[in-house]
Design a protein that fits this description.
21 helices, two-stranded antiparallel ribbon, alpha/beta, 50% helix, globular
Length: 524
């Protein structure tokens, strides 16, 4: 049906007739779409959303480890000091002593204890009242062991507050849910600072980081939790939105400034900001701004906030100033950011996850035998190529690097006759620099499995406990989760770490985690 030349010239009756005809057309189209969906479901033989298993590319491309020798397992080595107890045997007179038969038993002592500290009070000749101080680690009316147990159960054990209260009451403590919440979130600034310093050290020292995000609830609203880390550290930050602007703010690692420098201007040029606007920002004598209010005021004075063009100059300029601040603080000097192709992570020197790239081919809908054969053939070629990339990481050479680049073009430049698959191959071929970043930087991983594994704990927490209600609770949840993951990657016990920080008696000292991260991330 051809559209009328001038709608304004139609009478009300003619307009009503036109609307009726258009509604009929829409109804016919809806019926066609419903029929096509039913036919697609019939051809696929599926009811509802298909259940696709993981591709298994990473596991299949690894050599199978040798099977452990069969037999009894080795002796148990306790992590704590062994306490000896001699058990006497009833023997007849004249028996000879033949030593001891050792039998090791591990046990746990969990009981409530209430201590009354009778603090001496003295009145000096000058009239000053002196009271004996409390032992180290005692804060409020709860001891360090209780605080350590509560923090470990909640953050590492994923125990909810009601269940934690029930546990503590079951062993004899008189404690309320409000008091448990205070144990979890009050006075934890030193832990927040240590988690922030872990991120700063990782961003300044690491050769590569992987990133990922997932949903998070805060103040009854949906938000996003972002994970940043590598093999030696992990950090989590929950924010209200998901965007490149938000990711750059997280990469500042607690700093609030905006900086216009060479890196910031290069970022703006790369994102196609107008040359005249870049000139205004570059020639202005003020280049450093302490916070968002000062930065937005600067853009207002330069007239940038009044512009209504695409791309948004305020967003591009702000991203550039954030990138300038990141570089000004020494973060991401030559660091590769490995991500799953989410747009918000496309900053700096970037690499893509091969597992996510292959997953696109794996999840592709097929409807004919030809399409299924082509899909399986391409997946086999990608697995073969991926296995050779892993071999290259172990022994990189210039010749193999050249061969792999040529093979990439042949693999993702082919045409199969399966239109959707061909478009996907062309899309992956366009990401060649990011997918083959490993050829220039063999030390980086080929996937983001580490980030996905780390952030799974946040997903579990979201399912078990819902969201947080206060900003302090949100920050503590993210900080302790990051510290627990960092301890695991450094080979430390989170229980021992908390004991050292909470001044538990007889607990061995544990160095400041950022120092350990720096020593691990520093190149040999």
């Amino acid at each position: 049906m051809a559209p009328p030349g001038d709608l304004d010239a139609l009478s009300p009756t003619e307009l009503k007739a036109l609307v009726v005809r258009l509604l009929g057309k829409v109804a016919v189209l809806e019926q066609t779409v419903a029929a096509q969906r039913a036919e697609i479901a019939r051809l696929k033989g599926l009811k509802g959303r298909p259940a696709l298993k993981p591709s298994g590319m990473e596991e299949a491309s690894e050599p199978k480890p040798p099977s452990p020798p069969k037999g009894r397992r080795g002796p148990v080595t306790p992590r704590v000091a062994v306490e000896d107890r001699i058990l006497a045997a009833a023997v007849p007179p004249g028996s000879r002593f033949k030593g001891y038969a050792d039998f090791l038993v591990q046990d746990l002592v969990l009981r409530a204890r209430c201590i009354r500290y009778r603090r001496e009070r003295w009145l000096t000749p000058a009239g000053q009242l002196v009271v004996a101080p409390l032992p180290g680690g005692v804060v409020g009316h709860f001891g360090p062991e209780l605080r350590r147990f509560a923090l470990t159960q909640y953050h590492q054990g994923q125990v909810t507050v009601p269940r934690l209260v029930a546990q503590l009451r079951a062993v004899g403590l008189a404690i309320s849910p409000r008091q448990v919440m205070r144990l979890l979130i009050d006075g934890q600034q030193r832990f927040l600072d240590e988690a922030r310093d872990v991120l700063r050290t990782g961003l300044a020292q690491a050769a590569w980081i992987t990133v990922d995000d997932t949903g998070a609830r805060h103040k009854a609203a949906n938000g996003t939790c972002t994970q940043i880390g590598n093999d030696h550290f992990a950090w989590f930050g929950t924010t209200a939105r998901k965007s490149r602007l938000n990711f750059l703010e997280l990469l500042r690692a607690g700093h609030s400034d905006y900086v216009i420098n060479a890196e910031a201007l290069a970022y703006m040029r790369e994102r196609a900001l107008s040359g005249s606007l870049i000139e205004r920002l570059a020639t202005h004598p003020e280049h450093t701004f302490p916070d968002e209010a000062a930065w937005m005021g600067h853009l207002e004075r330069l007239g940038i906030r009044d512009l209504k063009v695409s791309p948004d100059p305020v967003r591009i300029a702000t991203e550039g100033a954030l990138w300038g601040a990141i570089k000004a603080h020494g973060f991401l000097p030559d660091t590769v950011v490995v991500s799953d192709d989410a747009g918000q992570f496309m900053v700096g020197r970037h690499a893509l996850c091969w597992v996510h790239a292959e997953r696109l081919v794996h999840k592709l809908d097929t409807f004919t035998d030809h399409q299924r054969r082509v899909q399986q053939y391409l997946r086999a070629l990608i697995w073969w190529f991926y296995r050779d990339l892993k071999a290259y990481r172990r022994e990189p050479t210039r010749r193999r690097r050249t061969e792999l680049r040529a093979r990439f073009d042949r693999l993702f430049g082919r045409r199969t006759g399966f239109v959707t698959l061909d478009r996907l191959l062309a899309r992956l071929h366009a990401h060649k620099p990011d997918l083959l970043r490993v050829l220039d930087r063999p030390e980086i991983p080929l996937h983001t499995n580490g980030s996905e594994s780390d952030i799974r704990a946040q997903v579990t927490r979201r399912k078990v406990s819902g969201g947080t209600r206060s900003d302090t609770g949100r920050d503590c949840r993210d900080a302790f989760l990051g510290l627990a993951k960092t301890c695991a990657k450094l080979g430390l016990s989170f229980w021992d770490y908390l004991g050292a920080r909470l001044a538990v008696p007889e607990q061995l000292a544990i160095p400041y985690l950022p120092q350990l991260v720096q020593s691990r991330c520093r190149p040999a």
